[in-house]
């Protein structure tokens, strides 16, 4: 399960939940729009419903079961329904747009992000592969001031497919002018990031911050700085 460090030239990162603290920034975005638009709900209680719903909707979006519009509307609609909060579709769509607008304005990173990027940058070419939407992901990178670490950014919109589809990994390789045998993927999603990368010929390390039980053959870390033992 060791990685041959001298063999690796290109390190590909997922963004949300791996470097960019999605849950913290998302909570702040909801606090802002609920206050601004007088949505009289307890944000913590709302998030207790919304977070698992959002994960489920992203799974459906990754597997092409729903569209971007259905993702953005459905996750809010379902969360409001669970709280028995009466709100019409027009307002849900408005709040969805507001959430997408405010989300990248917050820039909290997961612990160790800057330190590990500083450590890796002199040794490897660094890249992003994300299923997120292009404009939003670029805003996140710019606002968090980490865009300068990455030579290329591949998103699902430009690739035309989403992780774990091998075509997005090939698109990222082509953009980076990298070889799969010299590349490694770091991400938090076992299916999209890890199995997607492994099936595409990459090496891979799972960022398993929540200590989920996974196959013992999967390389994993629980803190970003643990990457130093692999790279």
TrEMBL record:
A single MF term (Gene Ontology): 5'-nucleotidase activity
A Pfam family it matches: HAD_2
PANTHER family: PTHR47478, PYRIMIDINE 5'-NUCLEOTIDASE YJJG
Family matches, as NCBIfam families: HAD-SF-IA-v1, YjjG_YfnB
Protein name: Noncanonical pyrimidine nucleotidase, YjjG family
Species of origin: Flavobacterium psychrotolerans
